[in-house]
Amino acid sequence: MAALLAVVDAGAIDVLELDRLSVGYDRAPVVRDLTLTVGRGEVVALLGANGAGKTTTLRAVSGLLRPVSGAVRLAARDLAGVSPTARARLGLAHVPPDRGIFFGLTVAEHFRLDGTDLEEAAGHFPALSTLRDRKAGLLSGGEQQMLAIARALSRRPKLLMLDEMSLGLAPVIVSRLLPVVREFATSNGTGVLLVEQHVHLALKIADRGYILSHGELAATGSAEQLRRDDALLAASYLGGAAGGAPGGAASGAPG
Ligand code: ATP
Fold this sequence. Notes:
The chain is an alpha/beta fold and 255 residues long. The chain has helices at 2-12, 54-62, 84-89, 107-114, 118-124, 127-130, 141-154, 171-188, 199-205, 223-228, 230-237, and strands spanning 16-24, 29-38, 43-48, 69-74, 77-78, 92-95, 159-163, 191-195, 208-213, 216-222, 251-252. It has a seven-stranded mixed sheet, with helices on both faces. It has a four-stranded antiparallel sheet with strand order 2-1-4-5, covered by helices on one side.
């Protein structure tokens, strides 16, 4: 019975929990009191204007920044004091805006370096097989991003964080990459936290979204609710959504 309950509970545990997280750089925190969850197999979009604090949030989850207060939990484990490397070993994968790939290495060498399987990754992105001997520096922007995401997926993370994967890419490329991420999350139970400039593309594949404004949670709701609320999305992108959702279906920030 206890074993059965443990199995049921494991399914209910969120992959990521941010509990009133405040984090920043030298002075006052730039992200304040942020509470956010990502469930197993769930894709969550983190949205907001430039400078709202999205990248800062992801860096706190990775352990690159130390929170001023609040907690970060990965599958119920408190990550306070856990190094970025140990977090990666616990199942956290973070693809930063610069993609974190090595221009002098070929596609295949990236997988050899990671000890993961290129052919398995090519199951998600078939083009990688053809590109296996090409140096990453000679790939197009879309191909580089494909490599970066494939490397992260091949580690079968509990949580995948994608920061501005569309930087420098045409929307048509982004619209091909995002469904692969969606499908991977659903079939492997990986939680995905997605920071994306192409808000409508992100909300098409996301389950839920959070909108940050000036470092605070301005609104949260299902992707469908947020997608319908053009006024809220526009306001968040102009940095004016703090203090509650203007009308619309999505709810304002709690407390
Ligand atoms: P963008 O899309 O522009 O990166 P963002 O929502 O990811 O926006 P952050 O990069 O998290 O925003 O920046 C949040 C705030 O923290 C901004 O005011 C920014 O100037 C500040 N900031 C970012 N990086 C640093 C740093 N290394 N040192 C000091 N302040 C920083």
